[in-house]
Amino acid sequence: MSDMLADFELLKKYGIPLLPYHIAKSESEALESAKKIGYPIVLKIVSPEIEHKTDVGGVKIGIKTEAMLRIAYKELVENANGRRLTGILVQKMARKGVELIIGGKKDEQFGHMVVLGLGGVFVEVFRDITARVCPIKEADVREMITELKAHPIITGTRGRKPIHIKSLCDIAIKTCKMMHENNISEIDINPAVFDENGCDIIDVRIIR
To answer: What is the pTM of this model?
Structure first.
């Protein structure tokens, strides 16, 4: 199973823009963390015994006040249902935008490959992805975008502004470098939420 905290630290090391977060060990610590990070925030269960947090009601989003946080914190602890908790993740709420997945895997034949596609809840639904062998350049990422069925959403359509393509290119290139230098078997940065100004990375899963 992926070690979430170690995964987060690795992203930070490579300058990949993870949303501000803190692991709280108590309700009072969660309140203090939220005050420092700034509302609205998200709470998530952190447990080595829970891989898919949403399956157990382990995520609470759109928390805007201390009162909402107190209720959500208690519900998350209850939803853990006796499983061992590392703590509760307090994280800044992401911007609204286009959810993408930036991932990769080590292929036995080709070596490390980077994957780009529509992310969030749509990953398994549409399976709209494309891939390249690492290392890659900005031109490769821009070409990958054109190969996605969802590329009009990324490049702008029907009055929507295009996302910040430069940020997407930067993260994809850094992901390739990170995979190679740390001999990573598989990585999913999902969702990475883009708008015209930049990107917020909500979660990552790394298999070494």
So the answer is: 0.88
